[in-house]
Amino acid sequence: MQRSQPQRYDYRTRIQVPMNSSDAVLLDYLKTDYRQVASQKEMQLSALRAYWLPIAYESLRERGGSVSDEELSRMAQNCILHLRERAEVLRQRFCPKLNLRADLPRTTQPLQNAESAMVPRQLLPPGNDAQFNRSNNGDQNHLR
User: Fold this and answer.
1) Residue 36 lies in a domain
2) Considering the domain boundaries, does residue 35 fall inside one?
3) What is the pTM of this model?
């Protein structure tokens, strides 16, 4: 007796970003780095889940799906734990003297502008600050 394959949800995306941008560095790493401990697909899904999974389920519920407050809360807690673990990995690897509770400034920037604060100017190629900010602040021309 043959087992049938589970149905698959097919999702494809194509992202075009400026070649000399931090987004290009990130996408190139995801695409080509052979030292990865996880597959490209799992790296992408893990990051998406941590940021968006509870919100996606909340949206599903608003459209008539059956998701309880308890399930949303548990999902959000799991995402928060994942993000904390990732923050700790980054702290240990790149700034071990940083005290996450005391040293990080609280930001009041809207989410759409938060990415521009994530890459220090010294990592950007000279003269590309405006291009970086434009590509990370809602300019849809870089997404196709």
Assistant:
1) yes
2) yes
3) 0.65
